Amino acid sequence: MKDALYGGVNAAVLTPMHADLTPDIARMADHARWLLANGCTGLGLLGTTGEAASFGLHERRAILEGLIAAGIPAAKLMPGTGCASLGDTVELTRHARDMGCPGVLMLPPFYYKAPSDDGLFAYFSAVIERVGPGIKIYLYHFPQQSAVPFSLDLIDRLLTAFPDTIKGVKDSSGDYANMLAMVERFAARGFEVYTGSDEYLQQILAAGGAGCITAASNANCQYGGIVYAKRTGPEADAAQAKMTATRRAATSVPLIPGLRQVIAHARGDDAWLTIRPPHLPLSAEQAKTVIAAWEAAGALPLPGLDGLAKAAE
């Protein structure tokens, strides 16, 4: 897809924390700079991997403001703004717009289960009307986590009603057939489809999708960058194989603490292991498992960070 706002590789960025569990903006900004220098075209903040649901409204605003103040370009950021509360969703979306972000990633209201498409259409209509113009909305389809899927008919209805606002989707369902159906039905209308699954990047690009927004891109973005640039051929195929292998490595243990373990290891910085409950750090055995899996995939050390871990030792 040409001219996609976030076309390419977007990391679902981890949120480092201080020992008191407050957000560590300096570490996060440093990681964001590394991601943008190593294959990422954009950064998804405060999504599932960023533990958004563990942060309050004011913390989420402060994280976005802190990163931009640290020099991370607002134009590269896609903050997650979807909350169970309509009011909080509106406030966070307005804030992202006012800070200069082109778009936001929006979960459906996820507390009340099995809402009708009519109910979801009413919710998004209310959000869009209250936020006003100037920001694009990307729908976050992750039914395993939210238990509230976006049907194709609902997307069609939203896109028809709000063609200047509804811009795309992140599909984290793991169902490639669903991703492909979104591309085939909506891409011609400028709707950007991003896979949330690393293993499908090459396929979705070939089908007319816009790229990926993935958790493992926190540490495998260099390969995603090659796939996005080359698309086909031996180099792209090898890079896609690395993406698939690293995704499997990332899911060999609980995903979020596992990725923190990989970054801590690569940077020689155990502060990355701090995580808000109910998530917990990995056990010693799990830590060995995930590092061994990334090493077996040939993805460690990370480019530009290998010297840091050695220095820390």
From TrEMBL:
Residues at the catalytic site: 140, 170
Protein name: 4-hydroxy-tetrahydrodipicolinate synthase
Entry's family note: Belongs to the DapA family.
Molecular functions (GO terms): 4-hydroxy-tetrahydrodipicolinate synthase activity
Sites where the protein binds pyruvate: 49, 213
Natural source organism: Humitalea rosea
Keyword field contains Lyase: yes
Keyword field: Lyase
Gene3D superfamilies to which the protein is assigned, alphabetical: Aldolase class I
Matches recorded under CDD domains: DHDPS-like (cd00408)
SUPFAM superfamilies reported for this sequence: Aldolase (SSF51569)
